[in-house]
Structures are given as structure tokens and as C-alpha cells.
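Format notes (please read before filing issues)

Several people have asked whether sequences and C-alpha cells are stored in separate files. They are not. Every record keeps both together, in the order shown below: the sequence lines, then the C-alpha cell lines. Line labels are part of the format and must not be stripped during preprocessing.
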Amino acid sequence: MPKIYFFDMDHTLIDNDCDVSWKSFVVEQCLAPPDALERATFYYYQYVDGKLDITDFMDFQLQEFVGRTRAEMEELSQRHFETWVKKTIYAKAEAEVRRVQASGMPTVLLSATNRVIARPVAVHFGFDACLATELEVRDGRYTGRLAGEYALGAGKIGRARDYCESHGLTLTDAAYYGDSVNDFPMLEAVGFPIAANPCPELEAGARKNNWPIISFS
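Then the structure lines:
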């Protein structure tokens, strides 16, 4: 049995892409122009196809962060969660997380989304940790740049491995729930891969590898 459980966020635990809904939220708050929604959708389909231009995407995605403090961004992120994200939580996904937690096993959110946006989801689910893309802060304000590697695809593996090692575990002890082609590296790295709400490409790969397939939708 797994000794630790990692969960992807978007379309695994929630019926939502938080990077897209974030742009909808900031447009609604008059913090970004309306055409930001079109660009967010463009980058979303790059992500779905496994061809995301990370540099261009992060330059676009972090525009609202530049010059703002941690407190300002935490407040905006919480409002984004309450108004856009919370209603999209899959009830079956939450039940699965609670089941694992009730067994006493550690649970961790592992997302490519930046920590500021992902953290309210982690808090809601009561995860033991939130591993996500980290953002640079200088003189108490966000710069709009990354602090370290983007946590997409293989970028998740190092974070998960470090967390496991700090708790006396290895990735072979870990389960991971993921939904997209970008989750292949992480699913291949763990001892207990689980395709959750898989896209067609991931479902085909899961069947080929005899990975469990579950649906929360």
C-alpha cells in the first residue's frame, strides 16, 4: 500500500483550470483587460496538448502579481477560490481525499499552478503540504518571475522526491493521482500511479501500463 498520496489539482480534484479562472477573476475585478481571457484560453490548449511555452505563459500569467505584496495576493487568491474554484470541487474527489486522510496516510497537493493560487485549495482539503510553482519575492513584493523550476511534467518529480526523502520515504512508496498528458512523468515515477479523470491520451497510456483508472466527475 502507498505510504504517501500526491494529488494533482486542476481537473483531478476540481472541474476547473485555475490559471484560466484566475484570469476570469482578475478581468472581473478590473485588474486585467478583457482580452486576457482569449490569451488564457490559448495557453490552456497549449497545456492540454503538452506544448506549453512556459516562458511566454508565465510572463502573461503573473502580470497581476508584479509589485503586489504577499498579503495583497493572498487576499485576491482567497476571493478567487471562494467565487470561482470552490463550487467546482468534485465531491467524489473530496471523499477520496478524506478516505485516505482517515487511514492516517499523509496527503499532498502537487500542482503546476503557482502556490499563491493553489494554496486555498490545499487548505480546503486539509493537505499536509502544498507543492507548487514558487514565485520570486523581493523587498516584500512579487517580481513576476519564478523562484526555481516550473512544476509541470518532470518539474513535479523533484519536488515530490525531496518531500518523500524528507519524510524517510521514496517515490516508490507514493501514489499519484493525475489527469493529463503532462502527468505522465510523475505517474511513471511513483510506485502507485492512478489516472483520475484521464484525458484520452492518458487513458490510453494507463490501459497500456495497467494503471488504475478512476473517475471523480
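For reference, the curators noted about this record: Residues 70-85 form the longest helix (16 residues). The chain is about 45% helix and 20% strand.
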